[in-house]
Amino acid sequence: MKILCKKMALSAVLFSALFSLCAQEKKIENLRDFLDSEIAAGKKEIIVSAGRYEVEDKGGAHLVFRGVEGVTIKAYDVDLVCKQTSCAILIVECKNFKIEGLRVDYDPLPFTQGKIVAMSDDKMVHEIEIFDGYPDTSRISVNKYEIFDQNTRRLKVDTYSMEKIEPISKTRFKAYKAKHCMYRKFQNEEIGDIVVTASSSEKGRGGHAIYISYSKDVTLKDINLYASCSFGFFDYASEGLVYDTCRVLRRETGDIAKRANPRVRSLNADGFHSKIAKKGPTYLNCETGWNGDDSIAINGTYHLVIGSKGNKLRVISNRNPLNIDEGDRVEIFKTDGSVEYATVKSVLPAAKITEEEEKWLYSLPIYPGFKEHKTFKSGFEVELDREIDVPRRSMILNANMIGNGFKIKGGKFGNNRSRGLIIKCGHGVIEGATIEAAWMESIKIAPEWFWFEGGHTENLVIKNNVIKCGAGPAITINSPKVNLKEGFGPAGAHRNIAILNNKISYVSLPVIFATSVQDLRLSKNKLNVMDDGYYMHDYGGRHMGTDCTEPITLINCSQK
Q1: Strands 503-506 and 51-55, how do they pair?
Q2: Model confidence at 146: pLDDT above 90
Q3: pTM
Q4: CA–CA separation, 442 vs 518, rounded Å?
């Protein structure tokens, strides 16, 4: 009798749990409203029932979390399907906030996919037929045009600059390469190869899939992301973020829609991108692959120095705000590739950019979007704690807002059109990662004049990684002069970098290229120069502006 009662009691508990689960499933008719109501009710742990949730964009994003603190959302076996090509999840001014277990995808996709059915004799014009199940030509874009081998389904050629796309019908279009592409040595695409190119977003939409700004101690765990208009995971002006087992994947199986040919792309741009972080992110066992740009990028934002007088600089901000205040340590990147640091005594508003300054600036080789959007406007007088002679066209940033303290531990990256990891900060570690088949450098440590992205690296350890089969160098460290043809800055632009116990199998020379480093340490790295890799290419030393034939090439470096 006692046993029977226990069984009945257990059955009642199970029935009650099942009833509660079913009731909860019925309640979640609108995922966004459900989450908003649970947060408003003060719930600290919110469990989302497994299933597929199609969500419409509202105010530029599908799910929005503002000012949320101390909340964990568990969404295992949950598919968030975004119905517009815009931000999937927007997180603003949140603290101690956590999302677990979500799968994020888009319907419609932010790119389309087809095969080459015809080419001009010089391969400068392609004709593509779009596969069933992909967006038609109504929003087709010239951006992020890539070609994948029809057999291996890997990238086949370096990304071409495309001049225009001409729709022929809803399912067919012509793509025209930029004129300079005719001089490219390797143009080995063939009839039948797979083409993927971006689809432009609706007006006022677009952007990054998961965007975190002005937040602290946010954790994303077990998130799978299958598409994005631009970056996958983007954090801005935040600190202490953790990406734990977050993945950027192409959805070759289990797709949310029927497609005649499985996807060859994951998303259109960077997998993870962190900008002006006060404390850099931690990436634990994360993964990116098949995306249209870098795997992980961490950087600060440079502003333009017009000139100096004594200890005062005239600075034009690259977008507002300047993010430099009294007491901040600033990095000044000079045109000769050298770096100086100073402490800020004061920051005062000054005259906005003049017509002469603007005309001069936009005649330089910089990202065209700066000119298009007129991002350099406001002027400032930045007073330093000492006199520094700073030439016009030098750059300045807050050295405390570049992502220092970041960690990349474990994970897998690569099979992308550009860099594996591009790092412009320090006081961090890259450990135990596998980087395979990046088209450019697998790890790049360098600022960029073109993008106004910085800064320089102090105190970095790169150890116990496996790097293989890329088309560019495995590891590149440099501080370029503003005129790239003139070479690199002196030792000391980067400081205290250790490259230890890495296993590198590569086809490009040099395998490791370092310049402008003071206290560089190389130890117990195993280098295997391969005869063949994933890609046909003619890069080698051309990446560094010099002919390099040695596996390890060091210029302007001092070693420990």
Answers
A1: unpaired
A2: yes
A3: 0.93
A4: 22
